[in-house]
Amino acid sequence: MRRLTFLVFPLMLAACSAGALRVQPAAEWSQGSEEFQVEAPAFQEISRAIGKEARAECQRQAGVRNCDFTILVDLNPRAPANAFQTLDDEGQPVIIFTRAMIKSAQNADELAFVMGHEAAHHVLGHIARQAESAQESAAIFNDLGKLNGETGKELERSQKLGAEVGVQMNVKAFELEADQLGTIITHNAGYDPLIGAKYFDRLPDPGDQFLGTHPPNAERVDIVQKTAKQLGLTQ
Ligand SMILES: [Zn+2]
Fold first, then answer.
1. Of 124, 144, 169, which closes a domain?
2. Is 18 found in the same domain as 93?
3. Residue 149 CB contacts under 8 Å (≥ 6 apart), including other chains
4. Does residue 235 sit within a domain?
5. Is 14 inside a domain boundary?
6. What is the average pLDDT across 210-225?
7. Any idea what DSSP says for residue 143?
8. 88 C-alpha vs ligand 1 centroid, how far in Å?
């Protein structure tokens, strides 16, 4: 098992960064005696199909060299429903699903869609772009802090706030970008993104708040439907 290094994607990782993760490759995951709507063999097949299509899509993009996706299951039974993308210490993409996330899906298309979305974050270089944006914004806040005569801890706080603002500025746009490319990856892998995106119907809607962490669900459904139409899919 490659050691996982968690890089900057603070919003995605906020719920997951505490403590050591106990993970298992999706291909080996077994559900145990618990009941799931999508059972282990189907989840393994989704991981294989999405991993393959995500790799192909990744290799089509100029400048993305790290395209070997590993899909893992977080075995912690208490971890909340979540899926996220990170990088291992060789810079290869890793997608982690919690058991609760797998359990919360009503069908294979939903899991495929979530996996396609996470894979798209990597293909689109979102982790690196977030780090860049955080750095730029931290530097600006640092300069402003200095102008205001800040030093030491105070200046540090300004830098941190700057980094946060830098990340927040992109979050909504990145989510919608990942929904769009995720729709294509899901479709290419043989799953239905329109059925998959029904998962949004059950998510609490973050609404249209300023600097909210995610776009409103309606906007996300909208971009999935538009992309699906371009792919020739009808509802
Ligand atoms: Zn996302």
1. 124
2. yes
3. none
4. no
5. yes
6. 82
7. H
8. 18
